[in-house]
Amino acid sequence: xxxxxVSVALLSLLTATAGAQPKIGYAEKKFDLxxxxxxxxxxxxxxxxxxxxxxxSLGSIDASCGCTGTIASNKEIRPGETGTLxxxxxxxxxxxxxxxxxxxxxxxxxxxxxxxxxxxxxxxEILTTPAHFWFKDAEIGRKTRLILTVKNNGKEPLRxxxxxxxxxxxxxxLPSSPIEPGKAAELYADFTPxxxxxxxxxxxxxxxxxxxxxxxxxxxxxxxxxxxxx
Length: 230
Fold this sequence. Notes:
The structure is a single chain. The chain is mainly beta. The chain is built from one helix and 17 strands. The protein has a five-stranded mixed beta sheet with strand order 2-9-8-4-6, with no helix packed on it. A hairpin with a 6-residue loop joins β8 and β9 (113-123).
């Protein structure tokens, strides 16, 4: 009779212990940051709740990219209480559709590894067409001119205020007037090389008045050969 009583008591204790667990709850596992300009840093805050009966401890919080940062309001959440997780995304090095993840590790019995997904559409306030200069078969001592279109997708007039490059023989002519929002202007690049270059891989930096993109980098590709008389 005593043995049976002990067994029943032990079973009751194990059942109660099994039910006393931390559990993680959240309002969303996916969210969209919408359309943002390249260079913007956007923050989104998630609410996490401990829906269990024991202390919820957050472990490592891992982002899929160095562009994404996370800050938890607290690493331990008591039963029935909530905490927040701030997720920041730096769009500086992106363009177009972006998909990133943040993984929350914890001691939650229901979901010890939660993967949060977010998307964004990153657009350039300054759009260049083409996106680079291509001097194919440029010749020593002869000037080659290329034209690049610069469009202002921002909300303020855009001024191109200067440029610099280490490529000898390259000269840029910038638009003399501000580029109004939604409008475009032409940028001229004149290249007069002084030596042969089998593979040209360089670039030019253009200073702008856009506070989110103070400098525009334009790659320069192509090759330089000896001048040939036709």
